[in-house]
Amino acid sequence: MEPARTELEGVARLLAEAGVDARRLRAALALLCDGAWWTLADLVRESATARRGVEALLREVEPERSGDRFRLSPAQAAACRELVGEEPGAPADPVAHLLPRHAGVLERMATLIAGAPRGRYALDHVAATPETVVRRALLLGARFWLPGARLLCVGDHDLTSLAVALIHPSARVTVADIDERILAYIDAQAERLGLDVRTRWADLRLGLPLSCRDQADLAITDPPYTPEGVGLFVARAVEGLRDPERGRVLLAYGASERTPMLALKVQTSLHDLNLAYEAIYPDFNRYFGAEAIGSAADLYILRPTTKTGPAVTARADRYGTAIYTQGPQSVESHTDSAPAVHPPETPKEFQPEVLVGDWPKDVFPERPRARLSTWLAKPYASSPERVACAVPAGMEAAVPRLLLATRAQHVRVSLNEPPRDLPALADLLSPVYELVQEPAARGLILDAVRLPPPGDGPARLLRRIMDNAHGKVANTWREGLIRAGGDLTKKQARAVVSEVAPWADDVTLLELPAHRLLDLRAAVTASLLHTTG
């Protein structure tokens, strides 16, 4: 039976109301007309149409249902094809013709993405499809000369680093990310596959790791989709370029067709950094999720100008901590009136010589203060015995680095939320600190008391390295080996370090991911065996 004309009036009205944006809805309707079963998520991703738009279309067309899947009957499909008219085309894909040559990489990336750690809600994680990360790698190679080039991934939950290294093995890739699980996974897979990918821990709100600055030819980022998140991640990406006038930043950013003002605010943050738009590829990135924006995002190619550097210097450290769309550091949940930290509950027993972080003004007002980012960036001028450190909710991942950044005998950390895994944190810091957790009226207090230096041997060398957290690991390690080995030259000692820990070159302790800090123990022991064996 042919569907009544009135049954399609709602569909026709919806398409008419969409105006020039009806291409997206027509694409979704054309997919439904193919007779296959579709889930809502697949329709959103394939048509790059916001979930609300697809839901409105489904309400009007009233398809057949089977669980969470939809399809049109043959009669409905025939009638809807008349509404769709000429098959709606999609914007040209700049690298679609290259994909067939890399079917093996696509298959491998599908496996890698399936095995990766699950995304974290508070970090705005949404996984890109395997096709997306492979196409990013292909576009980089088609647009730029990658042999010998250095790429910085500013955040890499999507594993773009591995796709680039698989397709362009002569490129050197570095990943800076806050998620320890992602860093450990990337390192493990890169080692297994023999890829040149290096990882650095970074909370970009506290700065870009020193070893990532002024190093890259290109940078790529898929940041939190807020003006603050995009502005911060892109600013850090620019800081990573060694020649900003020739380098480029590739940015994935998407917004619903219903929220052009949000897109304008994000683009304003890019304009404030004085970046030129070389290209924008619509709907280039596709995701498993992010249905509010059609599970799709555009890909921007941004070129710094002579005014970008000064703008980044002026703005990079002013974005604040609230950069996400959800979680404790979401833009909406952040209020300046709410105190970020709470004072220690036993001020008479613990009198800090330095306050680190954003403390209320009436807490120890006479004490000197240091910003979290400054504390991590360089050694403090004096050698305080007692330090009080305030860590806002959502920034607990920085705790081990904040503790390693000082040689104070006692550090009291005030937290709004407990660390994700206190036993793992205690194990990580066990060569240096004994940790004691105390409940507080709000949040909790973490006391870190410095242990006495160990005797000779691996423990002594390990402690020496961990006590020099702002220095390059390889340099401190080399000097320790020379002292222990007696007749080693600097070159010989450095060769030993490179052999047992190639990941330690040109990096400070504060940049190493947690799994590398744990690897350091066995590597130090192995290096001493080299000097005595």
Secondary structure: elements and pairs:
Elements lengths: L8 H10 L3 H11 L5 E2 H8 L3 H11 L2 E3 L2 E3 L2 H11 L18 H13 L14 H14 L6 E5 L5 H8 L4 E6 L2 H14 L3 E5 L16 E4 L5 H13 L8 E6 L6 H13 L2 E12 L9 E9 L3 H8 L38 E3 L12 E2 L1 H6 L8 E6 L7 H6 L5 E6 L6 H8 L3 E7 L4 E7 L7 H9 L6 H13 L4 H11 L13 H19 L1
Parallel strand pairs: 4-5, 4-7, 5-6, 7-8, 11-12, 11-13, 13-14
Antiparallel strand pairs: 1-3, 2-3, 8-10, 9-10, 14-16, 15-16
Query: What is the percent of helical residues?
Result: 25-40%
Strand content: 15-25%
> In which order are the strands of the major sheet placed?
6-5-4-7-8-10-9
Task: Please tell me the overall pLDDT.
Answer: 90
Q: Would you identify the regions where 5 or more consecutive residues have pLDDT less than 50?
A: 1-5, 336-340
Morphology = globular
Oligomer class = single chain
Number of alpha- plus pi-helical segments = 19
